[in-house]
Every structure is written in C-alpha cells, then in structure tokens.
C-alpha cells in the first residue's frame, strides 16, 4: 500500500490550514461525492470504494512529507503538528461497489470535521472517479454481447494504476479475465493471453510458429491467425496444426483474429473450422472494439465466441473522465448547529442538494425490477409501501405513483467515528452484487443509444429545504 | 519504486516461455517502439523514459511473483528459475524526453535477447504511451496561449499514477505548476492552488470568506469569485478585500473564475479591476478548457493571465490513448545472423520498417529550423552536407532536395550490454531540451487544425531492404 496522503490538490491544504487557524477545524461538515448526467452517462457502476477505504484508513503524513510542506513556506508549525497526528475520526456512508448509481445521487458521503473531510476530497475523487468510470464503460461493453469479454488494455492504460485498477473495475462488471498478470495476482482473477504477431515472425514460417506454440500448450492452443493473411495462410495453417493436435489426442482451443473485417473473417473462419471438423474451436476477436462495434458485429452475424478488448475499455475512450464532484452539503455553524448548504448555479442541474442524505430505491413487488430512486434526508423514514408519487425533480409535471413496491437503502455505513464498520466484500461478492443490481434494471435505462432516463426524485422534505435555501441565497 | 515486473500481459510470458523451451531465448531481437499518425497526432513529445529506465533496471521476480506464476500451471521450473535471475543484458537506444518525434519514427529501440526484449513490451508501452500522450496534449495546450498554464487535473486523472506522471509530463512541455502536491514533492516542481467554493460556503458570507483567506495569505491572495455571481458579488467583494490588503501594505495577487462565459467575464473583470486601481491583479481562468477553447478565448480577446487546466489535459480527453506499438524489426536466425523483419499489412502505413535503425533530423543552416527527418539503418553514415533528396515514403512523387543543412541523430544510447550508459537529465534539463526542440519546429507542423505534415523519409538503403522483404513475403 503506497502512502497517498500527499496525493492531493494544494488548495485542500491551504483551506484546512485556514480552518485550523480560525478555530473551525473541528466543525462537522458533510460532503457528497456524485456525478452529473450526460447523454453517455445515464447510469454508473460504483467502483473504487475498497481503495478509497484503504486510503482513508492509512492517511499518515510522514516526516519527509511534513518537511516538504514546511519547505513551501505556506504553513505554520501548529498546522504541521496537527497533520502529523492526522487520523480520520468521522463517518462515511457509501454505495457498495457494484451498485448501480444514477446522476446526482450521492454515492459516497463524508460527515467529519471539515479539516478531515476537506483534506480527502481530491484523493477520494481520483480513486472513485477512475474505477467507476471504467466499471461503467465495461458494463456497457459487456452488456452488448453474450460472448465473453477479456480486458486486454494494459499497454494503452494511462499508467500502471490505470492498468491495474482498470482491470479490477472491468472484472466487477463481468469481464471473464484480464491480460494483466499483476492484476491477476493482486485480485485473484483469471489471466489470459497466448501469443503475438512477433511470435509468428520469430520463426521461419507461420506453420513452424503454430506448431511450436501447439507443442508448448497442446491443451490450450489458441492461435493468432492474422499475421499474414487470415484466410489464405493463418487459418489453413491453424487447421493443419489442429489436425496434428487432434491426432495426438488433444483438443485445440481455437483462433484469434486481431485485424481486418471481423464480421466477414469470423463468419468465413467459422464455416471453414466447422467444415474441418473443429466445431468446438472458439473464435476470439480483438482490435479497437467498443460497445458500438459490438452492436454492429452482432447485427452482421459475426461468429465470435470471445473478445479481447483493450484501448476503448481501459481508457473509457469515448468519455475518458467521469466528472465526479465532491460538494459541501452541510456545515456546523458557530452555535454548533449543522446547517444544510447548497451551491447555486444558473442551471438547475448544477444546484446541489443540501443536508445529510440517503438514497432509497423502489422495487416493483411483481417484477422485482427497480422503478425509481428517491434522495431523502437521512433522518426521514423510508417510504413504507403506501402509494408514493414520484416527480421528475426538474420537469415536475412528469410524475408517477408507485404502488405494490418495497424500498432498499443504497448507502451503507463504512466508517463510524473513524472506525471501519464495513466488512469489505470479496471481488466475487462485488461481482454478484453488480449482477443482482443490473438484473433489476430495465433494459431501456441501460441501452447505449438514447437510453430512457431513470427517475430520481427528491423527497418532499428535501425539496422544500432546497427551495428554502435557494430563496435565501437570492 | 514499485516493482512492476509482473505488470505485463500474460502473452509476453507464454511467448518467452516458448523461446526458452525451444532454445531461442538468447537470440538477439530488435524491437521498435513507435506510434502511427492520425489527424490529431502529427507529432508527439517523448516522455516517460526515466520511468521506463527505472523499470528496466529494476526488473526482479520476487518469490511471491514466482509462486503466483507457478500457480497458473503454465510454466515449468526451469523457466521460473530463469525468471528469478532475470537481469536486462541488452542495448536500448531512445530519444531523450522532451524530443519532438513524428509518426513511424522509433522513439525507443531495444536490441536484446528475445527473452528480455519480449518480456518488456507491455510495461515499456504502458509507461511511454501514457506520458508521451499527456506531454503531447499539454504541448498543444501550452502552444495556444502566452498565458501561464497550471495543471489542475488530479481528481479526474485515471488513478494516482495518471495524476502523478501526467503532472510530470505537463511540466516537461512548459506548464508552470501543478495542483498535485505529491507530484510537486516527487519532481521538485511548483505547486499552486488557493481555495474552492466550499471555502466560501463555509463562512457566513462571501466577504467573510474572502477576508479570512486574505488574512491567511496576505501576500499571495488569489480569490475564487464565482461561487455566487462574479460581477454582482464575487468581484465587488474581492475588490473590497483587495483595498483592505492594500491599506495594510500588501499587494493582492488576483482572482480566479471557474465557470460561466470566460471571455465576457474576464473582460469585464479586467475593466473593473483596472478601474479600482488593481491593474497588477491577475485573472486566472479554469473549467473545462482545452486547446480549442484557448483559441476561441484568444479570438474573443479574453483577459486571462493564467489558466488552471484539468480534465482535458490530464486525460488527453480528445484522444485518450497514444496507440504506441512495439514491433519486431529483426531477429537472429539459427545461424547467428541478425535477420531484418517486417510486419506486412494491407495498408502501406501499417507495414513496419525492418532492421536496426536510427533517426536523423535535417536542420536548415540559415534558419536553424528542422526541415525533415530520415529513418536510416544504424550502420549507414549520416548525410554529410551534400544535397540530399527527400521523398515522401508513401506518395513518392513528393520530393524535396535539401542543401546547406546539418543533421543530428535523435536517438542516444541508454543501455549498452545491460549497463545504463545514459546520464539522466533533470526535469529542468528535459524542459530545456523540449523548448529547444519545439523552437526549431516550424509553426505549420504544430498548429492544431489541419497541420502540415512533416516529412519523414526512409534512406535509400532502408527503403530497398523494405521492398526486398515485402517481395519475399508475397
């Protein structure tokens, strides 16, 4: 575990220095971590909480960190002393990893002395923005195919962490393996990979290269057939070697195609493999694939059993940042009263929701599917089964009354008074939670082209509070 | 220094296992790391070499790594033993960080036993792809403004490494500071940052918040004025506080605007600050800025002294992966002769250049500017000042004869027989090398919209070799 305590924006330190100097350091503050919706971001999959928890548990300013901060000539010794003994003492609520979260819903809330809550802003955002981004992208990719998806992006990841934790995020949403060996070791997930074009080029001929590879891994022989020409060279050579393997009592695994017209080539390859008697041989495709390419390949009837997906997944190429923010929702005044706060803006969507909140999800008792979410103040009772009318928070003429439902709270306690009270789930448990959550989501909210917008309402009490504060600010 | 030895794609290991089993492990191979051009990628700025060198020097498979690899049931003990004693023993040539590199030019070449050269593929790509990508994006951003640019992207970076090494890459190309404290400490570069909206919201009023901040940092007071309303509230309050600072003998630094119409607001703010006598007060702008927004702000006459640039820079938002590749260019045959290799493709641009190569740059003796580059075989003599005719390697009817020039080789020896022979430059030296390199680049090759394509030719000998190998492959 690296010490990430200094991995923060300088202004977090200048601000908490101010809170310290003005005797405000111990005032309780509430910050919400959430993201705003876009056309491409109608839902997200929470990820990165485990790393965020590690960070919070381990914030320690070492002597050399303090010496560095001293060298900036911004801070006094009383502040540096306070940093030296920093330990998180507050509460954190969060949605478990693998949860489906919608725009504007807090996915993590920190309630702590402002000195602590403000310090952690940047690092919590970095960790959760990244993994949530990649889990969301991978969820879309995995959602567009019934074939297995392997994460192959390490070489195009934005640095080692992006490769490692991007692979982790991809596994949460159902990728079946990763090419990344370190991620395999760290997270105990399947690693996969066979050989590259350079293997083929290192032998006198493609056939020699295939034979050598087959001899090496006779029971898991998957051959990359596009080094020269898939149909004229790669596939005939692969079939020659598969016949040799078969004669020796082994079952070949299949082929991989990394370039060219994947729809045409895989259909031809399937036909040729079948005709040669290798109906069980798998066809793996790779090369610049994303969720839209998957749709197109499906529509063309491409014959693909598994995908290796690299650049487009590991960087979330079409939307390489989540844009999550961490906004003040309440702060204790000089009378010791926690005052809800909002940040105003010219656009309704950018006005934040005040107070300490929770999120509940309504599920239909008949279908089991999620119907809508409600952001409420934490001290409100949850809806109890009585008919409940949900409004669109901006277009309030859009409403819907739900009956025969049950609700679940989506955020759980993670830290209480600085103590970790959350049993960290294993990766298989996180995957199972994701699967259960996505299975309860109607397809129309999930589709990649013009998804229907899932309803997220504010409780009447929260809405009234918001309007009251807005009117005060005017 | 983290151990990145397992940070690799599994297929690197399965391949070198094969080379080991077939007695080919010690055959010398040559791999080139380069990228292909796109409309947005007409040049790049080399970065990440220092981290790549650290990686190569420190490849060590620890007991737990070996135990993990053993658990995969893919490898035998003789291979695991060989990994245990892994030490890089080959040669590496590379362009120094801060160099300008064009598509298809090797920016790093490994000549080593294939066991070693193949193993390092993924990690070298991850490290160099990432930093080169960010340095290139930042170079475009910095190139579009005479104002100072600060790197503010940590919270939107794709994980901690992306934030840390992205900040490093940004500093190489002339960013004047970063918000990232850990990057500041690690690379000894200026850190900057003042306060956020939450600071303003934590006080009873904006004026109280500004006064408190001014008291804290009276000689470096930069106030964020868009929490409520820039012109009606933020700026008048800032001027009030600036007058108080002035009366107390301090000079205010200026204001920051993070939202709204930056062109209109900064022009108004400049006028109002000037009228109030604060002609020296700086205006800093931030919020979703990239090189195209900079062009637009310039065209509108926005009054901005410095920028804080986050998401768009730290993720290279418009192109979040470089797409660098690492391709086999030669391998020793079973007679001990190093045989040049190329990877064929249907598209001319995707056919690789064979053999152990170097890159030389022609400079005009009158202007000092770079005219064209030449990729040559390493054992060819450099052009010596005699008139030299350069062809476009694809559209060969485009040619140009250069006279009155000198040339420089762009790649330098980094490792020789496993020994590091390169004196690692300091970050200021790397910045100076970048500045000297970009100053020698004509503006038309650098512009962000439809840049002129810089000529990169192959020497006649390399071209002939390529054609000969192509004809053999047919």
Characterization of the model:
Two copies of one chain form a homodimer. Chain A is an alpha/beta fold and 474 residues long. Chain A has helices at 10-21, 49-57, 63-71, 77-84, 114-119, 121-143, 160-172, 181-187, 197-201, 206-216, 230-247, 262-275, 291-299, 311-314, 427-439, 443-446, 460-473; strands at 28-34, 44-45, 91-94, 100-101, 108-113, 148-151, 177-178, 222-224, 254-257, 282-286, 306-309, 325-332, 338-340, 357-364, 370-377, 388-391, 399-402, 405-409, 412-416, 419-420, 456-458. The first copy, chain A, folds into two domains: 10-134 and 320-473, nicotinate phosphoribosyltransferase, CATH 3.20.140; 139-314, Aldolase class I (TIM Barrel, Alpha-Beta Barrel), CATH 3.20.20. The first copy, chain A, contains 17 helices and 21 strands. In chain A, the strands form five sheets. The first copy, chain A, has a seven-stranded antiparallel sheet. Chain A has a six-stranded parallel sheet with strand order 7-6-11-10-9-8. In chain A, α6 (121-143) packs across α7 (160-172) and α10 runs parallel beside α11 (230-247). Chain A is globular. Chains A and B meet through α1, α3, α6, α7 and α8 of A and α1, α3, α6, α7 and α8 of B.
